[in-house]
Amino acid sequence: MHQLRNKRILVGITGGIAAYKTAELVRELSKLGTEVQVVLTEGAKAFVTPMTLQALSGRTVRDSLLDPSAEAGMGHIELARWADRVLIAPASADSMARMAAGMANDLLTTLCLATESKVLLAPAMNQAMWADPATQRNLDELQKVKGDKLKVLMPASGEQACGDVGAGRMQEVSDLLKALADEFETKALTGKKVVITAGPTREPIDPVRYISNHSSGKMGYALAQAAMEAGAQVELVSGPVNLPKPDRINNHSVVSAQDMYDKVHELIDGADIFIATAAVADFRPETEASNKLKKVPGQDTMTLTMVKNPDILASVSNLENNRPNTVVGFAAETDQPLVYGRSKLEKKNLDFVVVNDVSRTDIGFNADHNEVTLLSSVDEKPIGPMSKTKLAEELISEIVKSIK
Ligand SMILES: Cc1cc2nc3c(=O)[nH]c(=O)nc-3n(C[C@H](O)[C@H](O)[C@H](O)COP(=O)(O)O)c2cc1C
């Protein structure tokens, strides 16, 4: 279940008896380190309380669409984008009917229309309700219109809360957890070695000062996680960031561009893919003062001589014998991002450039979301806006396609 760590799951609960089991599911997800946002329908609140689910998920439960105070925080569209997956458990006959009709008359159905993420639906109801042709028609309709954006976790047969016996019981919590974990289990990179750089570098001026940049490392860490979940052996070479070290990834902490260069070249042998997301300083102070620099009376300016750092990305891409099969660069640009991105692709002999417009504050550096264009010599593909986790999955899947 490690795949569920740090994933963002929006758990929708509708008005059915099985809602009590979903409380247990939310608890299990939280224990696994999953970020869980619970959304309750009006019906659901007759069966479970927001208080219980807030305590279990650690987040304020959302239950209303037309709520100005909630919209002032993470609005419904943001919430729809936030989710890596949506799980509706239990899904009532009524909510399935509304979804099949494309309705958006409460928060949950609106989110189902607004999200680009896959929706997992765990129906639960009395066996006669489940067997009713109207419910079956709604199920067929949903599967037809949503295609691979919907997965129905078919109800099991057995004794029901109402005393009936038949099909309609919600799948067990352990099965729902497995279904969620399977969503992140692509093994396209099994046996492959992936080296990823992330975060900023720090270029020392003296023992207490340095030159750096705003990179948070979030994109690189999300890619490392996505590559690991795709089965790769991941070597993550990271500058100083405030992010937890990802599980099941080989973490290498570095500080300066030169450290990063050295570590990358130590690890690159046998790598199949190199992804350079780090915001590496192009220049560093020529010398690092051994003692803290002091103000000099009467001196109002100070000049630092900077020298060029080695170009890590180009150095890997131009390796003669052990160049990785796929070399991917990131271009964080503030003007004419596509023009600069394409020139970087060509000049540095790259297979892909992920172009990022960092002049926008809603995406890129430090944000949880990103919107990029993936450039190759033959293609130009816009991806997003979406969470960095989801974007990382998409980028890894594009890289996998190119390898095939
Ligand atoms: C005691 C009780 C149990 C219910 N259990 C279910 C159920 O398991 N599945 C279902 O589809 N509807 C069930 N319903 C009916 C739904 O609660 C009702 O259709 C409601 O409008 C669903 O609203 P929602 O889809 O917005 O959550 C039950 C109703 C009651 C009174």
Number of helices, counting only DSSP H or I runs of 4 residues or more: 14
Number of domains: 2
The bound ligands are: flavin mononucleotide
Q: Describe the biggest sheet?
A: 8 strands, mixed
CATH architectural label of the largest domain:
3-Layer(aba) Sandwich
Portion in strands: 15-25%
- Approximately how much helix is present in the residues? 25-40%
| Averaged pLDDT | 93
Query: What spatial form do the alpha-carbon principal axes imply?
Result: elongated
Extract low-pLDDT stretches. none
Enumerate the strands of the largest sheet in spatial order, edge to edge or round the barrel.
Answer: 12-11-8-13-16-17-18-19
Could you name the CATH class of the largest domain? Alpha Beta
- What is the CATH topology assignment of the largest domain? Rossmann fold
What's the alpha carbon Rg, rounded to whole Å? 25 Å
Describe this protein's structure.
- The chain is of the alpha/beta class and 404 residues long.
- The protein has 2 domains: 2-183, 3-Layer(aba) Sandwich (Rossmann fold), CATH 3.40.50.1950; 193-403, Rossmann fold.
- It has helices spanning 19-31, 50-57, 68-72, 76-82, 93-100, 107-114, 127-131, 133-146, 173-183, 218-229, 257-267, 312-317, 337-347, 388-403; strands spanning 8-13, 35-40, 85-91, 118-123, 150-152, 156-159, 165-169, 193-198, 203-206, 209-211, 233-238, 250-253, 273-276, 283-285, 306-308, 326-333, 352-357, 369-375, 380-387.
- The strands form 5 sheets. It has an 8-stranded mixed β-sheet with strand order 12-11-8-13-16-17-18-19, sandwiched between helices. A 5-stranded parallel β-sheet has the order 2-1-3-4-5, sandwiched between helices. Strands 6-7 form a two-stranded antiparallel sheet.
- It is elongated and about 85 Å long.
